[in-house]
Fold these 4 entries.
Entry 1:
Amino acid sequence: MTPEAELVGSSGRHVAGKELALALLFLVPAMLLLVVWLVYPVVFTVVRSLFDAAGGSFIGLENYGEMFTNDSTLTAIKNNAVWVVVGPTLVTAVGLVFAVLTERIPFDRAFKAIVFMPMAISFLASGVIFRLVYESDPDRGVLNAMVTAVEDVFREPGRYPGGRPVDPEQLTVEGDGFISDALFSTGDTAELGLIGIRPALVDEEAQPAEVPAPPSDGLSGVVWLDFTAGGGSERGVIDAGEVGLVGVNIEAVSADGSVAGRASTDDAGRFLIDGLDPGEYRLRLTGSAFREPFGGYEWLGPTLVTPAVIGSFIWIWAGFAMVLIAAGLAAIPRETMEAARVDGANEWQVFQRVTVPLLRPVLLVVLVTLVINVLKIFDLVLIIPPGSVQDDATVLALEMWRVSFGGAQDQGLGSALGVFLFLLVLPAMAFNLRRFRAEEQ
Amino acid sequence: MTDVTDDLVLAEAPREPWTARAVRRLAHGPAYVVMAAIGLFWLVPTIGLFIASLRTAADNSQSGWWRALTAPSQLTLDNYQKLLDNQRITDSLWNSVAITVPTVVLLVLIAAMAAYAFAFVRFPGRDAVFLLVVGLLVVPLQVALIPIAQLYGDLGIFGSIPSVVLFHVAFGMPFAVFLLRNFFLGIPGELLEAARMDGASELTVFLRVVLPLGIPAIASLAIFQFLWVWNDLLVALVFADTGAAPITVAIREQTRQFGSNIDVIAPGAFVSMVVPLIVFFSFQRYFVQGLLAGSQK
């Protein structure tokens, strides 16, 4: 053994070579693992990336060329870019807000446990959880159920969605509703037949449609479902058994486009707009009755899939950011914030001018950790998007796996993707090394 | 914790007028409501999976899990019964155990030995070698998949449980050595010296002095790695064949037909979560400490 080798705490005494050898032997298993499983593979993969799919012939940088031209790898690179920019920033922001707010509530421990819990379970399980959350049918996916519940409050769906005129010449589409082409004179009676309404939507107490008597002043008419179960309905004619549509709002529109009067249909589909100046009017069936209920968003469709998967990523990692930032927050001297408050700063100013600047080092660590994790994101993108959307959602790590071990078995391109990922984490490695050196001093 | 420090600081700081305090208390009201709502929001997805796992496939395909809140008769343990009768799933659960436990034991032991050498033995090039370990912390495992698959093929161990274990042990090593070495540095040198004076060998010092004192860090590491390996999908997907596949891989096979397999996927995913959740809630403190040590030290 070399003379400068010695045991710490032995106050300069040289220890028997036997014991020193034993101590160095302690390193061998770990070093062996690191060299065989980490160091050698990096070198091998770099070399392998210069060979073709089968590994037989040297093709220089062709794999890298393909990586930046091939559709699916290009999509992966673009998606990864979105992930890196959006994911870590949002998670850190959410974690920061949570960390600050948990200081103000009595149930902070329960809150932290709940938000941190997703960190303990697998990305696979989280993926399954969010596949269910993002189900597009609002009757099955909880997110769309919540979104539609809110949406329907502001835009109430009609009672006859899907309803449309039996005669498109008579009524033409206007917004969600319809307006007549023809003009009706006061004293006329309009018969407005509709189809396309599921029988189940027609009220059970709906009465057989009836044509009202012509009014003395104004316009009257009937709106009915021109459809007989089992067929045999004559179009435009009120057949026996056909029912009136209740609650349809009708407007009389004058020539200048203004609304001269309005009415609503009764149980038998009858309406009467009275008090109109004599003249000619067009009739409008307002959209309120025919509006389709909001169907929810296609979270896992090609356009929204990446934001949706990033959403699940936030759900998982916000707890991580929160815990780290909360630890950093606990280390900030309270006096600094109190002093600012005493000086008259409000909470927002304290947060912005005192808390965040003092937390800068922690925030940086959280961001870097998240960036490293986002670059390697795999499980969520494999599990959450349905098979047909996977090509739109793909990322580098997923593409690396699919190319190397999926159908293509192109380990040349796969290696190039591996090397690319490795190059992308190099700045993080430099960051770690610099921080480590600074702390050792 | 934070409440206590708050009070202490307030007691020392110049007292603010009672009006200001009252305003601040009131200002906390919305925070309560918002935080409670967020907590609920965070919980809902998991509750959804759990309830879905208790409903039949037919119910799940017709309506959302929340319908069961008003129709509790929909809830049944049938899915779980079928899951436990499913040999593929039960085998995979055992495989998860057979992969995770040896990984954690080997990793802790090998990393503790290396950390001991880095912390207590001065040898030429020590700092450079440790710097290499720090550098390896962030190596993406993707870079090793192809070469190691080939190596395993050449050695004839591809697809086996040990092949998965070895990969995990190796890739957990940089973090493990880093964490333990930093902790060991905090152990007073005199304790080791005293043991050596008494004639203890390095092995005895390691086993009798350093390991017992390092228990907090070792516990953090063990829990962290346990969760990491139990939850892994990618490594097992590449290296484990059908007979060695852990629960994550078994569930992943079902997710290709997500809609029609929901009666297997939902309870399967929940079963796969139970172990980490128990570990997490029992040892939350150690887990968080490990996390803090990993990213802040």
Entry 2:
Amino acid sequence: MRRLALTAAALCALARAAAGQDTVRVGITYQPGVRPGLVVLPAPGLDSVHAMVARDLDFSDRFEVIALSQAPVSGKINFAFYRTLGAALAIELVPAGGGGVTARLYDLVAERPRGELTLPVDRSGVGESRLSIHALSDEIVRLAIGQPGVAATRILFLGDGDKRIWRVDSDGANLAAVTPAGVQVMSPSWSPDGARFAYVQFSRDGSRPIVMQTLASGTRTVLPTTATTQNITPAFSPDGRSLILARLSDQGASIYAMNVQELCCVERLTGGRFAENFSPAYSPDGRRVVFVSSRAGGQQVYTMAADGTDQELLVPFDFGTTGNSNAPDWSPDGATIAFHREVGGAPQIYTFDLAGRRLKALTSLGRNQDPSWAPDGRHIVFVSNRTGRLQLFVIDTETGRSRQLMTPGAARLPAWSRSLGRPR
Amino acid sequence: MSERHVLVPLALLALSAAGCGKKAEPVVVPQAVDTARAGPATPGPTPQQPIQPVDTEGGATRTALLADLGNVIHFDYDQDLVKPEDRPILDRKAAILMANPALRIRISGHADSRGSDEYNLVLGNKRALAAKNYLEAKGVNASRIDVTSFGEERPVDPAENEEAWAKNRRDEFEIIAGGDRLVAPR
């Protein structure tokens, strides 16, 4: 009943604000009480910042965001009015000295400020400046709930048409190709500091070297330890010192780790002929590795110690009936493995909770594959053909809410960066 | 879609060889250091395999040998076994390789778009190895055969249907050395 009344009030607000510009966003409530209503107050002179922050807070899936472009009354915060919209919190954005922005968080129930922060922000909201606004959004989330958001992140992916690596901001804006035209590549993987990424290059001589590219300068280097062999599925260690990958040879696919600081010390971690081992990813403490192996027939998800010992099946399966399971990624909080598993001929995104050993399906519509965790350990980006072509989607594993990252061409193999919001 | 590195299938090369002396795919050694500003890839170094329109064996024979070497073989879904009907294709390649000791080839394995993108690289490698092992069993020295995998990254038919998938599950064969003078097997 109360929910209905609030919705009606929100619709009234929508009608009222329609006279202004775009701009009331009424979110969908999944579980009342889990996502507090949050009003983003009008911010004269900060149009770009206001629009981006409101959207970031919406995409954080922590709040039901109501963004107003025009205040009903200027001056004092109208706590009672915003409460009628279903809001418990309000964010006020005001210009600060030196080009910064101050964000003030209000508790609408207690009718008082709950905290504020000021960050240096490039207010234009285009190109690289967007990152500083996303960083502001992430700190507002931290102010409200104690953990930062993941707006100041980027996603690398493979453009299916031109076979180049592209990057896009977490909100789907600022799209750019980052590897050169005419060179076919695959499988981008971020360094933990977000400064570099590694990928597979399809060289004309049949080799599949790993290339490391620095994002800021565009400098690219072929890893000498991979120059003459076929290497696939690279992933950095959490300290950025090692790269783990699979190498193809006459003996199938085996997992190797190598030191990418000293460019040395290639170590083979899986052995045996006729078993394929690939798609490795480190745990966030760097002590274990999750990977795919076909040692029992089809592809399934295993773990081992980072030195290759203690190999064991991780995600249970029924021999002969469970579909192939691939593309595991370890969540940044260490608690959950995301991967995809074929069900009735179509891959679907699953999570496996390590403590409870519970398997959970996150998707069922179309073909969904290649999950990659956001730094909050809550959101996952993956590939889906549910719209008729391959596109990137972000899902909130808590609420199941998902959104599409718009890309002009088909997109595959996404990799979500760690936070890029803090200066390095 | 920019595809500068598309390998020219040998069968096509053979078709065009009689008339125009078309260049075979050059072998490019990966560069140790590169820069993002290099722009689109420049043409590679001097091609190693200029195909002569006519040689000692005569154009027609040569064209036929190139076509036989370039013939593609196909695989069943998620399988890497050489199909019985494709054995004569590999037998012919083995005979040509045995008759031309300087000849070296590269086999590239390909997958259809089903299955995981990264697993398909593994599967492509297995398919290339299946053909290599077959040729080895026929007496060809392993050192004369390179293998590589493209996974599902270079479909011959990008459509998503059974017909296209069947075409895409394949091994391709290209000459990487010793192809300028070919002798027909006795």
Entry 3:
Amino acid sequence: MSTEQPTDQLGGHFGRFWAPLFLAWLIALLATAGALFLGEVMGMTPCVLCWYQRIAMFPLVVVLGLGLLEADGRSVRYAMPLAAAGWAIALYHCLVFWGLVTEALVPCGKGGSCADAEMQIVGFVPIPLLSVAAFTMILVLLWVSKKEVKT
Amino acid sequence: MNKKWLVVGAVAAVVLAFVGGALVFKDRSAQEVKQVAQNNNEALVRAHAPVFGNPAAKVTIVEFFDPSCETCRAFYPLVKRIVNASFGQVRLVVRYAPLHKGSDTAIQILEAARLQGKYWEALERALVDQPRWAAHHNPQPALIWDSLTDLGLDMAKARADAASPAIAQALRQDIADMQALQVKQTPGFFVNGTPLRDFGEAQLKALVDQEVAKARVP
């Protein structure tokens, strides 16, 4: 889409894109820690769709983290497709969870069912909904950050 | 530069919170598992279960065992050594936890061999050949029969016994007890009713030693 030269778009060292990028990274970090806690500590086996969301979420911590440490605004662009893919899978997962899409379409083999009612924390918040919220916030923050990189 | 420290600090805080939370959660669930084992004490040892070692031993290791499970295979010689080295103070009670596809068939074959007094021989053969028959994507437990040909079994009788309702009934009881005791992974160990809290060879040995020492004090 954009054709700007990356080197000039950094907004200087620690430009204004840094704050929203930091928040996006923090959300990815918390989501990653949370997913690992649910899976490894609490022993909730991730279902297939959870795994795909993890595949999108975990690298965001590294990509955005390096972007922060190197003050590299281009990391936003590399993170965008990951966040978008994760967001789409999380949304689909919510539809499965609420029964709006039947699970027969989803290949949930080993591990938990993707529509399992157990996939809630604090009693009532569905994990896929948390995932959608996290990816949405990350996308918005990345978008804000991208605008700051350009200006 | 302090912004970089913000990143490092956030990582450190999240890691600390994770580890702290994990410790709290582990401790709480360990208490819970202990409570469940206490409340379902009768589910640990059943009369139909195979026993290895001195039947009158004061210390009982209950192992929830899955013949398809690689870790059960790795633990088998260790547990056997613990029992053999105890001079009759420790016995092993085998309960089944068929958590893999095909494990039920494998168990039926082993139990059929047991009816002819060749249980431990059959079990050891099945474990040695586990990589051949227990691939999780394509389990072929019937291949165990090939491993048992030189044990001197009446194979026709064994094949008939394997399908017997008595064996199926015992297996159902084991599965019910496994669920009552909340065993979700194999091997699942209980020593004199105390669940093994941290999984591992050294931890199992320590728990057994502790119970042996307790049994010695009148």
Entry 4:
Amino acid sequence: MSPQAPLLGEFGAPPPGHRLGSNQQLDMPMRRYRDSECVDYCIVGVGSAGGVLLQRLARGGFQVVGLEAGPFWDTERDWVSDEAGSHQLYWNELRITGGENPLALGANNSGRGVGGGSVHWAAFVPRFHPSDFRVHTLDGVGVDWPIAYADLKPYYELIEREMPASGPPHFPWGDPHGYPYGPHPLGGNGNILVTGCTRLGIPVCIGGPVAILAGSRGDRPHCIYRGFCIQGCKVGAKQSTLISHVPDALAHGAEVRDHCMAARIELGDDGRVTGVIFFDREGRERRQLAKAVIVCGYAIETPRLLLNSACPGFEHGLANSSGTLGRYLMAQAGNVVLGRFDELVRQYKAPPAHALTEEFYETDPARGFARGFAVQTVGPLPIAMARQFAVAKGAWGWGLRQVMMDSNHWGAIALLGEILPWEDNRVEIAEEKDRHGLPVAKVTFNLHENDKKLIEFGKRKVMEIMRAAGATEVVQEDRYAHLVGAARMGSDPRASVVDAFGRTHDIPNLFICDGSILPTQGSANPGLTIQALAARTADYLIREGAAVFSGGKHSMEAPPLRRDLSPPDTWGHGVPTMS
Amino acid sequence: MRPGGQPGYYPGFHTLEQAEFWDEATRKVVLERVRRHEGIRFFAPEEAVLMRAVCDRILPQDDRDQEHKIPVLEAIDARLFAGRIEGYRFADMPADGDAHRLGLIAITEIADFLFGKRFESATGLEQDRVLLTLHDARPPAGEAIWRQMPVDRYWLLLVNDVIGAYYAHPYAWDEIGFGGPAYPRGYMRLNDGDPEPWEVQERRYEFAAPSDSLSGIFTPIGRGNRGGER
């Protein structure tokens, strides 16, 4: 027996039933479609975008099946409060990474299982700035979006309430706005960021914006500050579409088919897609017929699936008449800066994401490069921190043991810098094949001149903030965060893969909706924008109705905002409202 | 080094004592890590002897009593045997298992070149000299191996694997004062580095790496002939 023990004995098994977070139970039977039934929509990938689309389209009255390569998580049984034990949350299958600045994949940026990346994101949810949608016009770099900030703003507001997001009442950057739930208390790294910025006169924002509940709502409890956000939130305080949207989707007749890996999308003689070939849990090859297909596989698996779906008429990949499929892949600069303090920090407590500044977000001609960066808190657990020391300090052996023994005196904050879309940063198909015999993705990534200048300036600024906070030793590691692009949206079918609503220019009933359609990325974490785009695409598809399936002329008019399609109690009542 | 007892600045801190407060799934995963030791199944017996000697210098455990040694080689072997990867392979690298096997050949060649000995039978200082050439990306031997994989990538694969095994273990959490699993209880003292009631206060002492080592000083990792930014 331990000297301290819970009063009623050790914590036992969770109650029976499929648990989503500590309080939510999935207790409805799920509708099952037969392969031979031609459903309205087959969604490939039930992640950040796929989860929202599944929920919206089911509520909109459509027959929807979501294919998900990973498991349908029971968070009480499948997830652990442990760094090494959370390996399964990431897309760990082989990918080849190369170029001059090869990206780490897997745990760094790729989810697997229902909820996708929103299961392991840190859940920072800043909006993109209005300038992000027109960087080519403003700065002559990258490309303009086919939509403006104003088009997405209502969906930002909607999704922020559906998550719901916690943050300050007044967020001053970009289009100023506030958050429905109050800010979280500061942990050690937030304290460092706030102290450093304040001493340098840099405006800084505390306690969010994050998609982590600062107060309980319905069957979702508030945060308990345990710091394991990116290992999957067992608490259910951090939003993932697994807990926020998928339950409502099932309640409205959607099916989630987990452990199903899409192999290729089939094209009919009439130039329209007819369904998806996939490998099921037992490894059997099956076909789901659908009147329309939405690919939501994120920036690597989406182009991979379309490239692997090459067929007569689309020899270089489905919907790739422009040749841009797989190109303009982006990651953000994510240099981590570690600082040593005389006093204890114990930075492992509290959510990694809880304070930031966007004071350097916009282009400043005096800096000598276009666009900018944010500075944010991070929260490395022991394995991640030791690996950072191995690079940032060159630590190994006794030195590594020593600096890790001292790790409670170290804090960590990070750069989040905009890297521009470049044609040579791309996803291709490699020679290697996965266990299903499907060619794996090959990712190539190179930094360009503007990117290098931005990173150099940005990391120096973050280190300056760390020193101003009182750190006596400051080191840094080059890293990258997030993945977007590689199937970008645009008005010109010769230079983009999808239109402003995610419809592929080439095939009228094939859509893409996920991070891959972003033309540029700003220096805001992409999760909120991905979910907002999904809600907007859903409104469009619902307004278009059966016209999507019949091949008639389609409208490019913006659809009406459907607030009535939100999950229960997330709009208008049940959460505080601000306007 | 702390003479005897638990290494680190948190004497008397044992995360495992909190196991009853953890949720069942977490408790199972962590306790299995502590209790269960599979035999070596990926590395051949002679490779295993060499790999263990390498791991013992990448993260030495001389200051741990036998009962509290962390099974690093066993964890790496289990990963490679199961074919678990981190979700990618660098275009200029062989598969992880092959890279480790090639690395051991190169380490043998470097030890032979520098000292005319096998790595396993070299002194601690000599072993560190061998590994330092990898850290610096200036290996004096093993050219055929380095044509198949860049030395700096191999170094980080090796170091990251050893780290992944060592700092996953509750004994390492005790050493560094990491609170460990925290569900469903959570943390409540977020500020000023305050310990939770069940954590302990830091008690520092002078730490110095043993004199028969070269790893106690910090120098930047070499990039070999690939140049570029760090």
